[in-house]
Amino acid sequence: MAVRYTEEQLNTVDKSLLIQMFLNQQEQIQTLTAEVTSLNEKMQLMMEQMVLANRNRFGRSSEKMTDASQISFMEVDGTIVFFNEAEAVCDLDAPEPEHLEESAPRPVKKKGKKEQDLSCLPTHRIDHYMTEEELTAEFGKNGWKQLPDAISRRYRFVPVKVEVEEHHIGVYADKKDGHMVKAKHPRGLLHGSTVSPTLAAAIINGKYVNAIPLYRLEQEFKRYGLVITRQNMANWMIRLGEEYISVLYDYLHRKLYDYHVIQADETPVLVNRDGRPAGSKSYMWVYRSGYMYPDKQIVLYEYQRTRNASHPREFLKDFSGICVTDGYQVYHTLEKEKEDLMIAGCWVHGRRKFEEALATIPAEGKKESVAWLVMKQIQAIYREEGKLKDLSSEERLAQRQVVIRPLVDALFAYLKQKKEQIVVKGKLEAAFTYFLNQEKYLRVFLDDGDVPMDNNASERAIRGFCIGKKNWEVIDTINGAKTSAVIYSIAETAKANNLKPYEYFEHLLTVIPEHMEDTDRSFLEELLPWSPALPENIRK
């Protein structure tokens, strides 16, 4: 218990003792102040975590932002800087937004769209005409003439049907020496199996395109009289992936090296039986062609048990160019190892950091916060970048140099200025640290017209995989995980190139088996998703 002194007692205390008592109190106050500061920081972090948890659970997931036209800049001594914070975002006539997200615009109904949609489908004509007797009864002696038909169109659905494909193969023998030959016929996909390209394509389409679990496919096939177990289907997928589809996958992997810009990302997966304790994390990596190359898209997945640098190091060993990634340090390590590899950063990841910081600020203080102004600055950069999407690489680069570089310079100048004023550790401090540490990588897009500002294209590819993996049973083993990566790669590549996945897989599983004895893989050129040799029914 602390000792309390009266005024009379203090008047009789020796001066040296008073000095010592005062120094002790100073030390105690400093200790208590440090403890209070620490507790406040911990409380701040806890409050931020609670706010973000509620936001992630109940909030909107959109990353769109409102118009940023009110952001203004000025030049001081050759440096682009923002006006006064209040003046920079001031627009007295603008409505007051409640958040930084914009509502989705209503789609404009196109004239003739219904007819266009109907024209893409085969037509089953059904005639409705009156008989001679009916016409005579209606028109009598006056007679009648036929006018142009009234045409009414509606969609007609033809339910799935399962048939047995019975191949009768002519067998011939020489009358003298008895040697026999068979007529040319399709090669069976799997020895001793009844699976056909059409059935295999249907399973792949259901599982890897529509994320339907195998047990539901089993039930659906049974309704049509086809008894196939989920074990059968899983076995078929693994064998078909290893024997045939992987041939095209490896070819696309080599084709990926032809691109100057690629993108990469990864997501955790659980593989039940991989020799480790249950629940151990594995990873599905995705590598894709740069988003700025819309005509020839490649999306490739690769299963690995870990997230270390050895995996992208091996996958990208023959790649020379720019790879767009998030801030994961592994990629930066590779850049230091490979002289011909440059890493570009993702602006969306940085923006999310400030979005999280903004979410922890009470509503009444959001628009006066540093996080709000930074978000508006980032918004302005994205707004200008969006105007360049239809330009050529050279034109886009030129506009980035003239318009966007000054905005980026201003943003980083502002971040460096404000960083020193942030004393409390939390989401805002973490956002500033991330952005400033990633500056080198976030600036790469300014010097190359083929480099996108963010890695959203890879994240979208990963997102589809994440939806599907919840329904997959074949991923139970390492072989299943590797096969899933191969098949899913071809499915996503087909979709990225506006192909019909079912028709594409049926075509692949019809053609590839006929070339397995070829000494080279040149036949795969005609099977690439952008090949003009593909049948027209495969294209959307």
Instruction: Report how far the terminal alpha carbons are from each other.
Output: 83 Å
Dominant shape: elongated
- Compute the average pLDDT: 81
Helical stretch tally: 18
How much helical structure, as a percent, in the residues? 40-55%
In short:
The protein is α/β, with parallel strands linked by helices and 540 residues long. Helices cover 46% and strands 9% of the residues.
Describe the protein's architecture and organization.
This protein is of the alpha/beta class and 540 residues long. Among the domains are: 188-346 and 460-540, no CATH class; 348-454, no CATH class. It is built from 18 helices and 9 strands. The chain has helices at residues 7-11, 15-58, 85-88, 113-119, 132-139, 197-209, 214-223, 230-256, 310-315, 329-337, 347-359, 370-386, 393-419, 427-437, 439-442, 456-469, 478-496, 501-511; strands at residues 73-76, 79-82, 171-173, 180-182, 261-270, 281-289, 299-304, 321-324, 341-344. The strands form 3 sheets. It has a 5-stranded mixed beta sheet with strand order 7-6-5-8-9, with helices on both faces. The chain has a two-stranded antiparallel ribbon with strand order 1-2. β1 and β2 form a beta hairpin. α12 (370-386) packs antiparallel against α13 and α13 packs across α14 (427-437). The longest helix is centred in the first third of the chain and has 44 residues, at 15-58. The protein is elongated and about 130 Å long. It starts with 6 loop residues before the first helix and ends in a 29-residue tail after the last helix.
